[in-house]
């Protein structure tokens, strides 16, 4: 079994690590776009072109499924990717976990990039799945870039700014960008101070999307299997190594522990 994951940068680490934990026997192909990142400021047409190139590079390695481990690419390019690759390669998109977060009808904060916050796409998800909850959209300028660079000071500053915009009575937090799951510890700490230690429920997409990919292949999680899966790293279509910044995160270290080269 081989599963590919794509993103502009290292945001895909969270979903890749989730696949590795759930199926240690899976061969992984992680395809990113350091030459073209960040994707967020690009026009939808330009972003789709970049995403197609990254997906085609992954598809050349004949994966059994492709995870689009990027919220922005899932919004703008998912239909195009599916039109080109399916049915030969199932394509699984990443959707912010707004529906499960709103299920209890509490106070929900959705942390997302400025481009996603207030977008027609996100507002549609809120309308369709969060009608019974009080929802606050929290823009997080600079956070994804800080995570990508593994810049602790910039992460701390961006998290603090977003925490200040988060209502103190929040019950559920949606991490609406795949990069944010890499620093969920910093986010939890900042919000614990903001909400005076109230136990919050966090909703990410990494594990759900990994489970969905396995489901599409008719497989189930088997985390007890031997860790025999390989890792192929593609950077703007070129076979390469994990960026050094990946090792700043537990997810990157997990993947590197499988013998992946790091540059």
From TrEMBL:
Protein's organism: Streptomyces avidinii
Molecular function terms, GO-annotated: glutamate racemase activity
Listed EC numbers: 5.1.1.3
Keyword annotations from UniProtKB, A to Z: Isomerase
Gene3D superfamilies hit by this protein: 3.40.50.1860
Pfam families for the chain: Asp_Glu_race
Protein's name according to its UniProt entry: Glutamate racemase
InterPro entries, A to Z: Asp/Glu/hydantoin_racemase, Asp/Glu_race, Asp/Glu_racemase_AS_1
PROSITE patterns named among the record's database cross-references: ASP_GLU_RACEMASE_1
Species lineage: Bacteria, Bacillati, Actinomycetota, Actinomycetes, Kitasatosporales
């Amino acid at each position: 079994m081989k599963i590919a994951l794509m993103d502009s940068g290292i945001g895909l680490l969270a979903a890749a690590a989730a696949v590795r934990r759930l199926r240690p026997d899976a061969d992984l192909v992680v395809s990113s776009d350091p030459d073209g990142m960040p994707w967020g400021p690009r026009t939808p047409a330009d972003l789709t072109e970049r995403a197609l190139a990254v997906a085609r590079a992954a598809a050349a390695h004949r994966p059994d499924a492709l995870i689009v481990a990027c919220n922005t690419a899932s919004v703008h390019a998912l239909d195009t990717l599916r039109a080109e690759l399916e049915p030969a390669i199932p394509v699984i998109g990443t959707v912010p976990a707004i529906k499960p977060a709103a299920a209890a009808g509490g106070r929900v904060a959705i942390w997302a990039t400025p481009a996603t916050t207030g977008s027609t796409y996100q507002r549609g998800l809120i309308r369709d799945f969060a009608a019974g909850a009080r929802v606050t959209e929290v823009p997080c300028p600079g956070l994804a870039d800080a995570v990508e660079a593994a810049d602790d000071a910039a992460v701390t500053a961006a998290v603090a700014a977003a925490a200040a915009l988060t209502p103190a009575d929040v019950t559920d937090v949606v991490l609406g960008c795949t990069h944010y799951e890499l620093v969920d510890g910093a986010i939890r700490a900042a919000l614990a101070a903001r909400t005076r230690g109230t136990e919050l429920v966090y909703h990410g997409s990494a594990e759900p999307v990994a489970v969905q990919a396995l489901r599409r292949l008719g497989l189930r999680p088997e985390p007890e299997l031997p860790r025999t899966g390989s890792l192929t790293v593609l950077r703007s279509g070129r076979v390469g190594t994990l960026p050094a910044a990946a090792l700043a995160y537990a997810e990157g270290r997990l993947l590197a522990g499988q013998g992946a080269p790091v540059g």
